[in-house]
Amino acid sequence: MRVAENLLHISQQISEACQKVNRTPDEVKLIAVTKYVSIDRANEALEAGIINLGENRDDGLLNKWEVLGDKPIWHFIGSLQTRKVKNIIDKVEYIHSLDRISLAEEINKRAVKKMKCLVQVNVSQEETKHGLAPHAVLDFIKDLRPYENISIEGLMTMAPFTDDEEQLRTCFRKLKELRDEIKNCNLDYAPCKELSMGMSNDFEIAIEEGATMIRIGTALVGAAGEEE
Ligand SMILES: *Cc1c(COP(=O)(O)O)cnc(C)c1O
After folding, report:
1. Closest residue (by CA) to atom 7 of ligand 1?
2. Res. 132: pLDDT tops 60
3. CA distance linking residue 190 with residue 183, whole number of Å
4. What pTM, to 2 d.p., does this model score?
5. Could you report the per-residue pLDDT of 12-38, keeping only the tens digit for each?
6. What's the CA dihedral at 91, 56, 117, 10 to 10 degrees?
7. How far is the CA of 158 from the centre of ligand 1 (A)?
């Protein structure tokens, strides 16, 4: 399928999910996750009108950046090794995976402008997932005050891999509650308005639960080996 066709379908699904809960589609930023696909396919996504691209590895991002440059707005969505920060920091608009102080320190040191970060939360507390435990998030964000080049724009999570709608909903709802708690602290360096949650199999539920950024790979640009 062409990206444009997938996009048409997904835009419809976004609209319907928004309607259900009295939101509007312009409240939801669509990030096309291009980690599985070629540079050509990523470019096709841009030509279809997509603005935001997400990559989860520094080498994947660099490969595409060399060709596509600053045409898209780049989101780094994968776990980030401290020593890789310098490779991507001047190319991305958002880092969705801030999860430790040592990483904040490096981002702060290397930043070329105020860096927009989201704190990754392991809501479902699965051992295989990165991110902070929910109870640790507020203290973590309070500890980020000294890092003047970091702005905490919101929270990110990956839901458990399940079709159980209630389990997904509970996960997204918990992230929203946590986001609201932090937003209500009115920290000047942590406006914390964004909720980055929802992927190919759960983005409609995520939107119903308040997502402001959804990260879609498979359903939008395809998975490895199924670009057409
Ligand atoms: C791969 C990935 C996605 C997209 O997953 P799909 O199921 O292909 O939509 C979203 N977020 C993160 C962090 C990812 O690594």
Report:
1. 200
2. yes
3. 7
4. 0.97
5. 999 999 999 999 999 999 999 999 999
6. 100
7. 8
Digit-coded pLDDT (tens) for 143-199: 999 999 999 999 999 999 899 999 999 999 999 999 999 999 999 999 999 999 999
Q: What is the rounded CA–CA span in Å between residue 77 and residue 98? A: 9
75 lines ligand 1 (CB under 6 A): no
- Does residue 10 have its Cβ closer than 6 Å to ligand 1? no
Which fold is adopted by the domain 3-221?
Answer: TIM Barrel (3.20.20)
Extents of the domains making up the chain: 3-221
d(CA 202, CA 31): 14
Question: Backbone phi, then psi, for 14, in 5-degree steps?
Answer: -65, -45
Q: How far is the CA of 116 from the centre of ligand 1 (A)?
A: 20
CB of 122 within 6 A of ligand 1: the answer is: no
Report how far ligand 1's centroid is from the alpha carbon of 217 (Å). 6
191/95 Cα distance (integer angstroms) = 15
